[in-house]
Batch of 2 targets.
Target 1
Amino acid sequence: MYANPRLSPEEIWQRYSPDYFWNEYLPSLGVRNGQYDLSYFDSRHAPMLRLIDERRPGRGRLLEIGAGAGFFLKAAERAGWDVAGVEVSREAANFASARLDLDVWQESAETMTFAPASFDVVVMFDVIEHLLDPVLSLQRARAALRTGGVVIVSTPNVNSLTRFALGIDWAVLSPAEHLYNFSAHSLDLALRRAGFSGVILERKYDGFGVFETMNPRYTHAPSTLRNKAYRALVSTMGQVVYRQVQRAGLADSLIAVASAPQ
């Protein structure tokens, strides 16, 4: 599923302005007035770091494509990884470099210039849906990986229970930002076309609770009867059923792990 027609690249990049970074993006992470607690981000990102350890044991070099302000990279660095990142937003890349002392470059996923076969792990969290050319970006990620390295990609799930419940009011369906919307099948296909193998779609991820699995709040129309009914379902039954929703492949997000072939 993709946006057509779409805004020009120049109009799309305007969305990632300094105002957006300071007044929308950082507050959404709990960062206000430039103040943050790294121990909070260590805890927040611990489930993903455990997943990486399971899929690629040991430490090494880790690249994040779409690093944002760099808080995941900082948590990975504090856990023993040698880290680097690329980020299209100049404001975000500068924050990661200047405030968090990280090796983050302002580059697009499609044009990043890291040396081939220089990383053991590449991660892309809620990034691929924003990209102009997802398969090319995955090919760049593949080129950056050493043989046997792994890529981990997360993205909204267009076949989620929430999308079926909320329909076109699901806020993920935002064509000015999300140029592509992936199902498990299309994400698997994109990874294989980019040269990856052994694709695994994670069906039980410790970092997702009830509202990360089935979130009725993420909607363009919170006052509709449809949304109210879904909110009632989640509030009464969410704790009971959210693990089953994950196992059925109906969670709000997809997490795919794939390998750079030997």
Target 2
Amino acid sequence: MAKYEEELQIALEAARAGARIVSENYGKFQVSNTKENAKGLVTQTDLEAEKAIIQILQSKSKYNILSEESGSLGKSTGPIWVVDPLDGTNNFARSLPLFAVSVGLMDEDESLLGVIIDPVQNREFYALKNKGAYCDGKRLQLSYFNTEYIPSIFLNHGYDEADRNKFKKLSQIFASSYNILKLGTTALELCYVANGSVDAFICSGDAIWDFAAGIVIAQESGYIFTDWQGNKWERGNDHLLIARPEIHKEIIDLIKG
């Protein structure tokens, strides 16, 4: 069995448990509260899905857990589960069908595995480091880059004003030569990059649970993952760039400019 294959199966089981709760509650009235410092919404569904995910991870693994709603759980060393029980809560609360359940396993700066489930489309994206990325069992591989199309990129930002200002500036830089998209769920955006629907993902200000699972899925699909300077990403850096090899350097040059 490949290294962390057992953990991948645990992550799939946990994410599926969370996805069932999210799916059952989608479209129903959601009582939502604003988080501290106005950093997004949280609904009862977020909390219930998180509880189901954490219960499975704790019962079948000894790794620490970092989850969006509950924070850090456990005191052991080594790899850590990183959980977003409902990425795209704003969309979910408004009955917009763009949200996902995300479970990743990280060791320092490396994303070892990732599982992202789209409960609306009933699709499972998952990857194990050095073992490829998949959607519903089908291998994801870098698709042919058709230069007849204008490249499309996801441009994302966090809640802080500084990140929103960076988004405004980058929008001006990229608007003339790229199609700019934003779905309101980093996890799903990274899946659409991984399956070749979109050519790059750029963000400033996302939290680690937003992208922990998605970065390994995109990397294993053939995309390059760095910071905005083209350097190896280090944990704590919230300037992420994931792009096709054909346009990675071009995007870096535009950002530097």
